[in-house]
Automatic annotation (TrEMBL):
The chain crosses the membrane at residues 229-248, 325-344, 600-624, 699-716, 723-747, 833-857, 1113-1132, 1139-1161, 1167-1191, 1203-1231, 1237-1264. Residues 571-749 form the SSD domain. It comes from Sphenostylis stenocarpa. This is SSD domain-containing protein. GO terms for molecular function: lipid transporter activity; sterol binding.
Length: 1287
């Protein structure tokens, strides 16, 4: 019969006596029990002494341990008394010192504190106990209480209870144990920085870098940024300078006006003058060089402009005579380019879409995936409670009803069977299984081993709450896949470590991933993911909503599938097409002539030419091997990973078409407008010739500027944006060529049709001439080129602006393109802008906007919000919102070491590890230091180290870990097969493992480091070793993919990784700052250790672009502006005009960026390309006005007014309204990316461009426009221009 009594009352309490000695029995689970007989300590024999010292070198002399206790620990003795509990007397100073020494020791496999595993997560030694975790009732320490617990059979821990006491009440010879405690910073221990931050080998953490907060100035209670303050001062100075200059100019102007001559109104010629006869002879004003009233002074164009004008005049006449040949030959070339579409391919791999070939992140990802393993796929559910009101904290989700609901959901998920090529795929077929046959599902159901029967057996909700604090120390809290589950990965919406107040369940299903280089290796997973989404929508969502909860969900392929759905649901552009068709037509004074004057067919054919130019561009690049790609990407940490995917080429083609339409329609309207301004009496060939000579140089200048600007976008390193820019540039070029060829031919045919009284859209139907009312306008003085020559003849000497306005109004009233717009410009807009006060106000306001935009530009953040790239009705919208709201864990980050030389001669091992004898500045020690400054380093905790655990695993102290059979093969721990079989009851000493011995003794190692051969032999053992209670350091599962064993036999490991976590990243800027901080850290460590080390996380490849996105944007914008300036300078040969165009373009881009800051539009590849292309589009608002100004006569005010009348209406109706209609349809898109990055940005561009082109630019030209250039060509005029008398 066993007797149970306290050792404290039977043992002889004196020095050199043992309280227990030898083994007297064991429990039912095989754990041995010691004998209670007090006896003097015993001197061990040499063999036993050697064994003891191999584990505890400091123990010498007598011991209280028999050979049986040391060698077997499991002797079988029947009928003896056994110990069931002991009292252990300790001093508080000893307990506190012991806790302080151990509290920071790291449990490498879980990358958590070891005290979480062996100390129930004790936060300090003197934490008072809680009565059922609620009331303070006792004074024993939390940690020691846990250590002294008597555990049931089968659980790790003490087989008998240990009651730790800090006082001795009764007279007793017992003494409080107050042995010397080694602090973890004691040099004799050699603790690492990761285990002991106060270790002397650990230098103090580097001071935090200077704050990135912008410079600010405090003015009273107002805090102003230095940039804003400086710009405000600059603006005040500029305004004073502007007003001073204006007053000076007003005084000079009044003096000149007093000394000037009266206007020569009596020189106005009649219809018989030579200038009127120019109309009859079909002479263009360029041919007569815009004559002044004496026939001597004329405007002299640049050589390039004059050559272009002559070329277009000659070409236009030839094209109008042979429209059919021109039309079909130009179409044939474009159709030939379209044949390249047969090689058109669609790229959907995000790393190929958004990462350039020279990308450092792409190279690192490829290295990681090929040498270690690609990150797993993520399928996720988030179930959350609903707060009663907006400002009330949501209730806890940890209730019995919700956990039972979670079991029901899990049962349905387990029941999914997806069809893939005739095979039924379940979650078990594709899930990640690190330690056996169970999926590594992250869910609080793992605290019940995913078994609903265990819910009541383990204690229900109370057991789950207990496991939140003891998930690493209690076996019943271990997951079904035999590993602890951190509650931070399965819960959300809590603060600190208050897991019980969590308001969300986060269920994550890691799924095996494959490197998608060839074939569809992830086909099974994708098939299951589609079935999972269908289940979530049709069954899980109603279940959750019935319980008054919310559900969001996502899979690895969700984003790609949602974007595909989006691309087939976007709005059509029929509205824009219809507007173009109506705009190109006339506004007949009589309804009977509507069918002749309308140009619906011409407009539709013009749009068709735009489409052909886009398809031809895509076909060309497809033919030469540049795959047409387009994508929108989404970056979001999803519990364990950033999910980024893509869609297909629909977006590239559509956006290229929209951009090309913006540009092409403008030129089409300008060409048609110019033709309609020609005298109706001229032949169609001459009308086309004169029109092309008039507008050819300006549309060439505009088109070349746009092509250059779009081509600059191809310098962007992201392939999707680069190819998009290349396609757009070539499409604009093809569209320009089609405009001056095919479209000119179509315009010729359309005007011939109208003259022949044939109905629009149905040219085979011809109206009766008698039913057609004359609507071609007045053929004579007021309509045509002769009138403009007459007007400009007097412009240089007219000083009575009323007379000038009267004559100009006469012309504008017959302005066929849009007389209402033209007269509005002349009657309201131009006179208003001509007022001196208005001019100064316009300059002041626009400069203010520009300076304010510069200040706002600094507030633009890099990035691309996930929700923006998705349809508005996508289920992922709520998912990404919940990710930011509930997730409390950051993305994992791996520090990858290349070419680690593990040979004994190399110092690489000590430069990497963080245990005893490792260098103080080793990689892992530095990571531990960085984790102490998470706000600047974005590193949340010390790294999990396979190297540290391997060195501990092979050490003699870990006698249950690295073991070998007598034949030298690997012997697992005693609690694993074949040493212990699950079906054979408790594990004992006997069996196949009874002769296993530790791999090494201390004498076998050199400074506790293995030799090269030992390292090479034992590393595969370690990576295959399963962790268990007897040896938790086994590397299988935790480090299976942490080391690349290919070629490691040569003494060098090509790749290995050390895993830690970033802090939670909720904003786009957090992701950018995290990758920058990790790279800076790795660069510093690599330089210090002279090793090749780089950080890797799954989101780096997509956020790398933002590290230098500002530099990229500014450089490309500068290149585009410079290129356009050169083009303008070459064609106009006017530095003055080119500088004004450049100034306006800079102001437009700055204002556009200011609007981006106001609207919260982020800077990314999409917005950078938009900004670059906006420069080309903005040229349209400037170049035509400037060109019209340069070819007009008179003073600056008169030339500006003439330019507004002649080209202002075209810019407004043919450019502004056309672009506006094209942009407005994007507002109805189901995609936020279309609304934000195309609708909002392009709408802002149209409005800003319109205001600068028709308000700011005319004012600037009237004040600072380039002067006229004159030359004497009287002789030429006498020869070329017949007089009235000779006629």
């Amino acid at each position: 019969m066993d007797f149970v009594f306290s050792v404290a009352f039977l043992a002889k309490h004196s020095e050199e006596y043992c309280a227990m000695y030898d083994i007297c029995g064991q429990r039912s689970d095989g754990k041995v029990l010691n004998c209670p007989y007090g006896s003097p300590s015993v001197k061990p024999d040499d063999l036993l002494s050697a064994k003891i010292q191999s584990l505890c070198p400091s123990i010498t002399g007598n011991v209280c341990c028999s050979a049986d206790q040391f060698d077997t620990l499991r002797g079988q003795v029947n009928g003896n008394m056994t110990v069931d509990g002991i009292d252990f007397y300790i001093a508080e100073t000893f307990g506190e010192g012991l806790y302080e020494s151990c509290k920071d020791v790291k449990f490498g496999t879980m990358n958590t504190r070891a005290i979480d595993f062996v100390g129930a997560g004790a936060s300090n030694f003197k934490v008072l106990h809680m009565d059922k975790c609620s009331k303070v009732v006792c004074s024993y320490t939390e940690w020691f209480d846990f250590l002294g617990q008597k555990v049931p059979p089968g659980f790790p821990g003490s087989p008998y209870s240990i009651l730790f006491k800090t006082t001795i009440h009764d007279p007793s010879p017992m003494k409080l144990m107050n042995a010397s405690v080694y602090s973890c910073n004691d040099t004799s221990l050699g603790c690492s920085c990761g285990d002991c931050p106060s270790s002397p080998v650990c230098s103090a953490p580097e001071p935090s870098p200077p704050s990135n907060a912008p410079c600010s100035i405090r003015i009273g209670s107002l805090k102003v940024r230095c940039v804003d303050f400086s710009l405000a001062i600059l603006y005040i100075v500029l305004v004073f300078v502007l007003f001073g200059w204006a007053l000076l100019q007003r005084k000079r102007g009044s003096r000149r006006l007093e000394s000037s001559e009266e206007p020569l109104l009596n020189d106005m010629v009649g219809e018989g003058s030579s200038f009127a006869n120019l109309q009859k002879d079909g002479i263009h004003p360029v041919e007569v060089q815009l004559i002044d009233h004496q026939g001597q002074n004329v405007v002299q164009f640049s050589f390039v402009q004059e050559w272009l004008s002559g070329f277009y005049r000659t070409y236009g006449r030839w094209a109008a005579r042979k429209p059919t040949i021109v039309l079909f030959s130009s179409l044939a070339i474009v159709v030939l380019l379209c044949l390249g579409l047969v090689r058109f391919e669609v790229e959907t791999r995000p790393e190929k879409l958004w990462v350039g070939p020279a990308s450092k992140a792409a190279e690192e990802k490829d290295f990681f995936d090929s040498h270690l393993a690609p990150f797993y796929r993520i399928e996720q559910l988030i179930i959350a409670t609903i707060p009663e009101s907006k400002h009330v904290k949501p209730p806890s989700i940890i209730t019995e009803e919700n956990i039972e609901l979670l079991f029901e959901i899990q049962e349905k998920v387990d029941g999914i069977r997806a069809n893939y090529s005739g095979f039924l795929v379940s979650l078990s077929d594709i899930c990640l299984k690190p330690l056996g046959e169970d999926c590594a599902t992250e869910s609080i159901l793992q605290y019940f081993q995913m078994d609903p029967d265990n819910y009541d057996n383990y204690g229900g909700v109370e057991h789950a709450e207990y496991c939140f604090q003891h998930y690493t120390s209690t076996e019943t809290c271990f997951s079904a896949f035999k590993a602890p589950l951190e509650p931070t990965t399965a819960l959300g919406g809590f603060s600190g470590n208050n897991y019980s107040e969590a308001s969300a369940f986060v269920i994550t299903y890691p799924v095996n991933n494959a490197i998608m280089k060839v074939g569809d290796e992830n086909g099974k997973a994708i098939a299951w993911e589609k079935a999972f989404i269908q289940l979530a929508k049709e069954e899980l969502l109603p279940m959750v909503q019935t319980s008054n909860l919310t559900l969001s969900f996502s899979t690895e392929s969700s984003i790609e599938e949602e974007l595909k759905r989006e691309s087939t649901a976007d709005v059509s552009y029929i509205v824009m097409f219809a507007y173009i068709s109506v705009t190109l037509g006339d506004r007949p004074p009589h309804s009977s002539s509507f069918f002749l004057s309308s140009k619906v067919l011409l407009g539709l054919l013009g749009v068709l030419l735009v489409m052909l130019s886009v398809l031809g561009s895509v076909g060309f690049f497809s033919a030469i091997g540049e795959t047409s790609v387009a994508s929108k990407y989404v970056g979001g940490w999803r519990g364990a990973k950033t999910n980024l995917q893509s869609t297909h080429a629909f977006i590239t083609v559509i956006m290229t078409f929209i951009t090309d339409t913006f540009v092409g329609v403008d030129n089409m309207c300008i060409i048609v407008d110019a033709v309609k301004r020609q005298p109706s009496s001229l032949p169609v060939e001459e009308q086309i010739s004169n029109a092309m000579g008039e507008v050819g140089p300006s549309i060439t200048l505009a088109s070349l500027s746009e092509i250059v600007a779009f081509a600059v976008g191809s310098f962007v390193s992201m392939p999707a944006c680069r190819v998009f820019s290349m396609i757009a540039a070539l499409a604009v070029l093809l569209d320009f060529l089609l405009q001056i060829t095919a479209f000119v031919a179509l315009v010729t045919l359309d005007f011939v049709r109208a003259r022949d009284n044939r109905i629009d859209c149905f040219p085979c139907i011809k109206l009766n001439p008698s039913s057609v009312e004359e609507n071609e306008g007045i053929v004579g003085f007021r309509n045509g080129i002769a009138f403009m020559i007459f007007l400009q003849y007097f412009a240089s000497n007219l000083k009575d602006l009323a007379v000038f306005d009267m004559i100009l109004k006469a012309y504008c009233s017959d302005y066929k393109f849009d007389p209402f717009v033209a007269l509005s410009v002349l009657d309201v807009h131009a006179p208003f802008l001509g007022l001196w006060g208005v001019k100064i106000l316009v300059i002041a306001v626009f400069v203010a906007f520009t300076l304010a935009s510069i200040a706002l530009c600094t507030r633009i953040e890099p990035g691309l919000q996930q929700q923006i790239a998705l349809p508005r009705d996508s289920y992922l919208q709520g998912y990404f919102s919940n990710i930011s709201e509930y997730l409390r864990v950051g993305p994992p980050v791996y520090f990858v070491v290349k070419d680690y030389n593990y040979s004994l001669e190399s110092n690489h091992t000590n430069q990497l590890c963080s245990i005893s004898h490792c260098d103080s500045n080793s990689l892992l020690n530095e990571i531990s230091r960085a984790s102490l400054e998470p706000k600047s380093s974005y590193i949340a905790k010390p790294a999990a180290s396979w190297l540290d655990d391997f060195l501990v695993w092979i050490s003699p102290e870990a006698f249950s870990c690295c073991r070998k059979f007598t034949n030298g093969s690997y012997c697992p721990p005693d609690d694993q097969p074949p040493c212990c079989l699950p079906d054979e009851g408790p594990c004992g000493l006997g069996g196949v493992c009874k002769d296993c011995t530790t791999c090494f003794r201390h004498l076998d190692l050199v400074n506790d480091r293995p030799s090269t051969a030992q390292f090479r032999e034992k590393l595969p053992w370690f990576l295959d070793a399963l962790p268990s209670a007897d040896c938790a350091k086994g590397g299988h599962g935790a480090y299976t993919n942490s080391v690349d064993l290919n070629g490691y036999e040569r003494g060098v490991i090509q790749a290995s990784e050390f895993r830690t976590y970033h802090t939670p990243l909720n904003r786009q800027s957090d992701y950018v700052n995290a990758i920058q901080a990790a790279r800076d850290f790795s660069a510093r460590i690599s330089t210090s250790l002279k090793m090749d080390i780089f950080p890797y996380s799954v989101f780096y490849i997509f956020f790398e672009q933002y590290l230098d996105i500002w530099k990229l944007a500014l450089i490309n914008i500068a290149i585009a502006l410079g290129a356009i300036f050169v083009v303008c300078l070459v064609i106009t040969s006017s530095l003055w005009s080119s500088a004004i165009i450049l100034l306006v373009l800079v102001m437009i881009i700055l204002d556009l960026m200011g609007v981006m800051a106001i609207l919260g539009i982020q800077l990314n590849a999409v917005s950078v390309v938009n900004l670059i292309m906006s420069i080309g589009i903005a040229v349209e608002f400037c170049v035509h006005i400037v060109h019209a100004f340069t070819v007009s006569l008179g003073d600056r005010n008169q030339r500006a007014k003439t330019a507004l009348c002649t080209m202002g209406a075209s810019v407004f109706s043919g450019i502004t309204l056309t672009k506006l209609v094209g942009v407005l349809v994007l507002c109805f898109s189901t995609s936020e990316i279309f609304v934000v990055y195309y609708f909002q940005m392009y709408l802002a561009l149209v409005i800003i461009g319109f205001l600068h082109g028709l308000v700011f630019l005319p004012v600037v030209l009237s004040l600072f426009g380039p002067p006229l250039r004159y030359t004497v060509i009287k002789e030429q005029l006498e020869e070329d221009v017949p007089s009235a008398s000779s006629e």
